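User: Round two. Same drill as before: sequence, then structure, for each protein.

Assistant: Same drill it is. First protein:
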Amino acid sequence: MSRIVFSVTSPNDYASTVEQVTEALKSEGFGVLTSIDVAATLKAKLDVEHRPYVILGACNPHYAHQALEAVPDIGALLPCNVVVREEDDGRVSVVFMDPESVLGLIADPAVEKVGHDVAEKLQRVADAVGKA
């Protein structure tokens, strides 16, 4: 099985990491279209306590357009999700959907190229977050 995610541990606290990830995504041409606070949702819907956990729906419009032009149904695989979560030991993990693997499922050369290019950008985000 190919990898579907890659991750990095942040040296910063949770709130700082969420801000840093958002800014690093922006520097690579991504916007955050959605932000799902999983911990707050679990508390509101199930009255369950959960460590801080957010899913950021990141989108690079240039690459999203290329993928949609090649395969209109690709929207079901967009945006690129990035998870920021606090672990049991207090460390903060940042987990990225691997667009190269996920978009590679389509078996379309144009989409595979988009997946490769976006993966490179997200890897730069991961590298920036891991160094901070």
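Second protein:
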Amino acid sequence: MNNLSLKVSSRIVVLDIGMYIFRYVSDTPAHPRNSSLSLHQAPIGKGAVDFFPASGVVRNTLTMPGDCVVVRVKGAQASVLITEYHPEDESATIQLRIDQISTFPSGPKPSEPSPVAPPRTVGLKLNGHIETRGDVAVEDEWLGVPGTPLRLEGFSVDWQDQPKDVNLAYLCRSGKDSEPQIALAGQFVGTRRQAKPITSVAFALTGQRAAHYELSGQAVFGGQPPLDIAADKELSGPNGTEQLVALRLVITPKAAQVSPPASPWSNTATTQIFRKAK
């Protein structure tokens, strides 16, 4: 873009310790075409901030709907500087959504059992690349074979008929100290045809209706018994070097729901934001 005059605006969001997804969303087809939004740690708060961009996101910069960055705040409260760049002739604004990935257990169960049938699981299609077998797709069953040494080198999870206001986030690492690859439902993590193992995985539900669903399943690392998947818990073998060989994931709608309190992240009036426009 030669000789393009830009409008720049900034704001700061203050976050408590936890995990968050910053996502570029759009409710209309006419989203800003030449605009972008970047994320950096701001000097407010004593905590540290780590950024884990999704595939295709460069330098923590969101350029189109669907782009996202997972943000981890650790140690203490910290802040993120959000900077938007718009051409002078662009009137639309970027819609940024911030969802906290809950690390708290669900609320208490009803005191009396409900006389209804167990809820059905949602439809999940797992796609993966398995050593010597190539690309494999399964629905509601194991991706890979427990008890074999064949590496599951990469995978994606497609949520069929995915409802609004809830999403599945997942990550994997290809080494004990490697940076994680992070994605949302439908996106691929890991590798293909690189003989590179996955040594840890984690899964979480996010969004305003995340509390209406339960996440479960198992992951198997080479030579080890299955490990139960729990929301926001990173799983690996005892040495952190064992390779992932099989994966099974289940999402179940909770049968009896009491509406959870509104998330503070859906109401900008309750979020600490400091704005400075240039």
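The chain is about 0% helix and 45% strand.

User: Perfect.
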